[in-house]
Amino acid sequence: MVFTDSLAAYLAEVILSHLALTGVFLLATLAAVRWYIRDSYKVDGFSQKHVVITGCDSGFGNLLAKQLDRKGFQVMAACLTEKGAADLAAAASPRLKTFLLDVTDSTSIRKAVESVSREVGERGLWGLVNNAGRSTPIGPTEWMKLEDFTKVLDVNLIGVIDVTLQFLPLIKKARGRVVNVASILGRLSLTGGGYCLSKWGVEAFSDSLRRNMQHFGINVSIIEPGFFKTNVTRVDLIDADLRRLWSHLPQDVKDSYGATYLDEYMKAQTFSMGLLCSPDISKVTRCMEHALTARFPRTRYAAGWDAKLFWIPLSYLPSFVADFIVNVILPSPKQNM
Q: Model confidence over 25-61: pLDDT tens digits?
């Protein structure tokens, strides 16, 4: 009798635990389906919506401009060079407009705002995509001077802030969107120079802007790409700048790294970039497009499987794990303690 009672109690416990697990699974499934459906809702009236994109000479900005143009958006693509503007205009519909913009020059930004304001009228500006950026100088921190940091910060962070603040009244009119391009290096500082600093700054600026402007119906999204083949990751440009930095170092600093360190560093960088960089930049522009077209845009978009499955999870682990990975990838200086 005691055995029967124990068996019955055990069976009841198993059944109830399975019911609980089944219930949890069903709830998780329903939540995932609801999220997917909600995530798929789109805004309408693309042809009445104006979007400004910076950094459209090449890369993400160039592809996004063409992508949105095909969707019927009124795209205003900002390029740094006349050639970039002309090439983009030739590859798009007559609806797409290009203009020259230097995001480090407040006067250039002000003129752009005045031009866009005349174009959008009372509708306001639906979307601003802060995509313009640069990576070099990038490398060991000790090799840098202050101006090496400011060259990057002026474009990647101060430029983003200046462009956003000047366009904000037009975005407020339309209750529109701001899309800021950060990076997984805005979560993990894997190298020295201004790039990681600037992307951490973009993350912080975007978070504060989102919290401030949500009361006015403005959505702010952050794009966090992994490694992709663009001008920002061109190894020849990065290597040329590393040689410049090395050539200006005092001899005692060079001696502390060793005569072969520069070559070993560049080889390691070429290998890792070749391994990590994806040529499919549409993975990034699809995230940007969703941030502009979704009725409920996400706060953050991890672009690329390396970002989703490796870099962002790594950013939540103890720092010594990331330190170990960097030490495996890059060579150690001669005077390694």
A: 778 777 888 878 988 899 999 999 999 999 999 999 9
**52 with 76: CB under 8 angstroms?**
yes
The yes-or-no answer on residue 257 being catalytic is no
All residues at 6 or more sequence positions from 284 whose CB lies less than 8 Å from its CB, including other chains: 60, 223, 225, 228, 303, 304
Give the containing element (helix H, strand E) for 3.
helix 2-40
E-only strand ranges, the chain: 50-53, 74-79, 97-100, 127-130, 138-139, 177-181, 192-193, 219-225, 300-303
Over the chain, what is the mean pLDDT? 93
| Tokens coding 229 | 């083949």
With H, G, I as helix, E, B as strand and everything else as coil, classify residue 276.
helix
Say how many CA atoms lie within 13 Å of 304 toward its Cβ: 21
Exposed/middle/buried for residue 21 (C-beta within 10 Å: 0-12, 13-18, 19+): exposed
Q: What is the pLDDT of residues 130-166, one digit of tens each?
A: 999 999 999 999 999 999 999 999 999 999 999 999 9
Report the amino acid identity of residue 308. Answer: K
Q: Do 86 and 77 meet the contact criterion of CB atoms below 8 Å apart?
A: no
| Length reported for the chain | 337
Task: Choose, from 10, 36, 41, 195, the residue flagged as catalytic.
Answer: 195
47 DSSP 8-state letter: G
- Against a cut of 0.85, is the pTM above it? yes
3-state secondary structure at position 335: coil
At which residue do the structure tokens 């960097």 appear?
326
Give me 15's structure tokens.
């059944």
| Cα–Cα distance, 158 to 156 (Å, whole number) | 6
Q: Are 56 and 62 in contact (CB under 8 A)?
A: yes
Pick from 178, 67, 172, 65: which is nearest to 129 by CA? Answer: 178
